[in-house]
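Run log // design_07
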């Protein structure tokens, strides 16, 4: 299973793990993902250096921890994004990262969307149906701790910062 993070959870994780290289290196390559738009949003946020450091992190084998999933307009994911989820908002940018992430989850059954936005979570559950793969950040933090990918101390700080 891969976890597709929205901008909010990415920023929360980056704030805690920024400088905590031991935790970052414990996360296996490509288990954490962001859409191309979420990456751009994260690098234009209030904490671009923290987000860049997390997005550039490497696992213990030197492979990228994060995968960036780009969506081409002519692909099936792009057709879902622009033809179904955003048919009249092709030039709008509001919620673009969320919509792009949702379209990716609709086509990649191994992706679980992680979002702290209540409307995005509700929409994802509605669009993905009974087998929806959606998590709140707290669920992801618990999963990362359970798998031993972040320390108990980092888990505690992450949960506290997400409250």
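design_07 sequence
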């Amino acid at each position: 299973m891969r976890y597709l993070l929205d901008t909010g959870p990415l920023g929360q994780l980056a704030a805690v793990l920024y400088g905590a290289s031991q935790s970052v290196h414990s996360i296996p390559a490509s288990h954490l993902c962001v859409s191309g738009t979420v990456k751009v949003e994260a690098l234009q946020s209030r904490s671009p250096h923290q987000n860049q450091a997390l997005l550039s992190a490497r696992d213990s084998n030197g492979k990228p921890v994060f995968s960036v999933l780009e969506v081409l307009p002519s692909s099936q994911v792009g057709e879902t994004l622009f033809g179904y989820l955003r048919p009249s908002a092709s030039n709008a940018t509001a919620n673009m990262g969320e919509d792009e992430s949702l379209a990716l989850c609709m086509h990649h059954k191994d992706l679980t969307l992680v979002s702290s936005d209540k409307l995005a979570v509700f929409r994802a559950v509605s669009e993905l149906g009974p087998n929806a793969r959606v998590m709140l950040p707290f669920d992801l933090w618990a999963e990362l701790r359970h798998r031993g990918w972040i320390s108990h101390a980092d888990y505690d700080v992450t949960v506290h910062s997400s409250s």
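The two ends are 25 Å apart (CA to CA).
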